[in-house]
Amino acid sequence: MRIKELPPILFFLLLGLYVAWASRRLGLGTLYYPGSGLMSFYVGLGMALLSFSMLLHLFLRRSKQEEKAEKRLQAIHYPRIALVVTALVVYSLVIEKLGYIVATLFLLLILFLCAGSKKTSAVICSILTLFITYFGFTYLGVRFPPGILTVFGL
Prior knowledge:
Structural class: mainly alpha
Strand content: under 5%
């Protein structure tokens, strides 16, 4: 067990429990008529459950797993992280001008390629993800910035 991992896990466990407890005072409502505290209640509950599972994992893991985790931390690819952060910043700056479809397609391509996908699967997954999110949220009434695709009526 690594003792320096214990304080952050306990912090997020307690934070998740507090958020769930405080959200109940806002009113949960039901799934069909949600109250103002429903989403934060489930987020706090999820955070507490994830922290609890990490706490269990911390006490149950073996030393070989610690060695593997340390090797993975040493193998962090910082240029990929910088590319993802840059892509997210650029995305937030150009989504109004280019529109949701074009900007999100380029962002998803970069994210899938940085995750290690092959080029063809990255293109296919990006297009599928784009269409699923676009039509799903459009069905729910969300309006996206059309950008340069206003010519096509999208």
